[in-house]
Amino acid sequence: MSEAAPLLEVEDIAKHYPVRKGLLRARRIGTVRAVDGVSFVLRRGETLALVGESGCGKSTTARLVMRLIEPSAGRIRFDGQDVTEARGGALRQLRRRMQIVFQDPYASLNPRLAVGDAIAEPMAVHGIGTGTERRARVQELLRLVGLQPFHAGRYPHEFSGGQRQRIGIARALSVRPELLVCDEPVSALDVSIQAQVVNLLRDLQVRFGLSYLLIAHDLAVVKHAADRIAVMYLGRIVETADKRALFAAPRHPYTRALLAAVPRPDPALRGRVRPIGGDPPSPLDPPPGCHFHTRCPHAEPVCAREDPPLRPMATNGGAGHLAACHLAERLPPVPPVAAEAISPTAARRLALFTGARAAPEG
Amino acid sequence: MSATVPDDSAAPPIIETAAPAPPVRAGLWRRLLRDPGTALAVLAALLLVGAALLAPLLAPTDPYDNDLARALQPPGSPGLPLGADSQGRDLITRLLYGLRTSLSMGLAAVLLGGGIGAAVGFAAAYWPRVDGLLMRLMDVMLSFPAILFGLALAAIFGPGVRAVVLALSVATVPLMARIVRGSALVVMRQDYIEAARAMGMSDARLILRHLAPNCLSSIFVFATLRFGQVILLGSALSFLGLGAQPPEAELGAMASEGRNFLFFAPHIAIIPSVLIFAVVLAFNILGDGLRDALDPRLRI
C-alpha cells in the first residue's frame, strides 16, 4: 500500500439532533449525539469497516460522509476536496465519485423503474454517454454482477433479495465511483447469499481499485471483507486497528465483548461465553467519563470521571492501532476463547463438511 | 492488496442477445373485474361516460327544441319514452346533454383541483420547511364548505359552470394535498429516494421520476372517488341556481327545475336525480374497487 494521500479523511464529525418539546414555543430539552466526534482515514483500495451495535451511529456516519445529511461539526475531505463545503456543481461531481449501497434490497430499488433504467439512472443524471452507450453499459454491468442482459427489462419485484442487492451494486458502479459506501450490504440477506455478495464486492474491489467504507454489525462478514476496522460505541470510535491486530489483540473491553459474542460452531463453548449485560445508554444522556463504563467489566473509578482519548497502542507491529480506554495496558490478556482448539470430534466433522463443500465446486 | 487502476476494459464483452422480456404486469383489469360489484360499476361508468361523449349522436332531438304542446308529458307518451319537461323538451336528450355537462364539470374540477392539490402535497412532503405552512393553509381551505365557495365565486363571476368548476376545484385542492402528502411521506422514507439523492439528482427529476410514480395509485383512487363526490356537489350548486343556467342542461339544474312540478309530473325531478345517484354510486364503487385492486397487500 503506497503512502499516497488518503481518499477519504473524516475529521471530528458530529451529528447532533436537538430534541424539542412544547407546541408553540418549543424548548430545547436535550441533544441526541448520534455521532459525536468521529475521525478516520480511508486509503485508496482499502476497506474500512465500521462496526458496532444498532444505534451506535454507524449508518449516520455513512450518510454524513455521503452528505445525505449535514454534519453539525467537523470536516470531511474526499481526495483532498472538502465535502462539507461543496455546493451545486462541485457537490454533484463529488457525488459521482462516491456511491452508496443500501441495506434493504427491497427498499433501495424503485418498484416502478425497470432494472435497466435504474442502473442507467446515475449515468443519465450525470449526463454520461448517449442512450445507446448507456444501454450497452447496463448490459456490461449486469454481466459484471452476475445477472443476464435480458434482466434489464424486468422490474425489481421479479428478483430475489440477493439479485436485487447486486442490481443495487451495479447501479452504484455505473458511474465508475472511487468510493463505495456499503451500509450493511448483506445483513438483510440469507447467509448463503451473503457470501456471494461479499465475494462480489471483493472481486469488484480488486478489479476497479474501489475503496469501501463498510458498515456492518456482523463480525464474520467484517473479518472476511475488511482491511481495517473501526469499532463504534455510542457515537464514538472506541478502537481502530488493522483487522489482524484487532482480532488478535483487542485493546478495548467493548471490542473484546463484541468478539466474544461472535457465534462459533463449537458445542463445547456452550454456556461459556458471557455476554456483556444491559443495553447501551441513551445517546440523549450519555454517561460521564468513558461511555462504556456502565457496562464494562473492568471499570474503575477513573472511568466514570475522565473521558478516555483515542490513543495509540503499542502492539506487536500493528501501527495505527488506537483505543480509547484508560486501562488498555492493564487489561487482563484476552481469554483464549478463540485460540482454544475445538474438540477432536467436532474438528473431524468440520473438516468433513469443508471437504464436502469444496468438492462439487472444484 | 492488488489495487488496479479503475478501468472497465477488463470487463467481459457486451453480448446483445435475448430481447428484453416484457415485465409481467399482474393484470389490474383482471383484479378489478374479479369483484362482481366493481365489475358492474366499471360497466356503469363506461356506459355513462360513453353516453355523455356520444350525446350529440345518441340524442333523438335537439336539447333546446321546446314544444309547449308536449310539456309535462309523462314517460311512455308517444315519441317520448321518458316524457318531456316543463318546456316540452325530450327528457332523454336533456339527460344525455345534462350528463355531458355534469361529467365535464366534475372532470375539470378533479383535474384542476387535484392537480394543484397533488403539487402542494408533493411540495409539502419533499420540503419539510414549507410543510407546516402549506398544510395549515390547506386546513384553512378545508374549513370552508364547498357551497360557500360556490356562493362567493358565483357572486364574483356570476353564476355559471365556470364558478361551479372553480368552487369544486378549490374544495378538492386541500383533500388531494393531504392524501398526496401522506403517501409521499411514506415514499420519501424509502432507500431509493436516498439513492437518488446520493446520485446528485435534481429535485424536479426526483419528484417526477421517483416520488410521483409511487404515489400514483392513491392519487388515482382518490381522483375517482372525488369525481363522484364533485358531481354530486356540482349538481347541488346547480340545484341552488349557482351553476348551469337555463336553458343549458345539467342534471342538478334539471332536478331543481322539476321541483316545481313534483305533484303533476314527478318524473322531471326524479329521473335526473336517479341519474345523479347512479353516477355517484358507480364512481364511488369504482374508486373503492381500484383501491383494493391497487393495494399490493391484497394481491394474490
UniProtKB/TrEMBL annotation, chain A:
GO biological process: what's one of them? transmembrane transport
Entry's Pfam families?
ABC_tran, oligo_HPY
The entry sums up its family as follows:
Belongs to the ABC transporter superfamily.
**Topology in the membrane?**
Peripheral membrane protein
> What is the name of this protein?
Oligopeptide transport ATP-binding protein OppF
What's a single GO CC term here? plasma membrane
State the species of origin. Answer: uncultured Acetobacteraceae bacterium
Molecular function in Gene Ontology: ATP binding; ATP hydrolysis activity
Pinpoint the ABC transporter domain residues. Answer: 8-259
Task: Tell me the superkingdom of the source.
Answer: Bacteria
Keywords annotated in UniProt: ATP-binding, Nucleotide-binding, Transport
Query: Which CDD domains does this chain map to?
Result: ABC_NikE_OppD_transporters
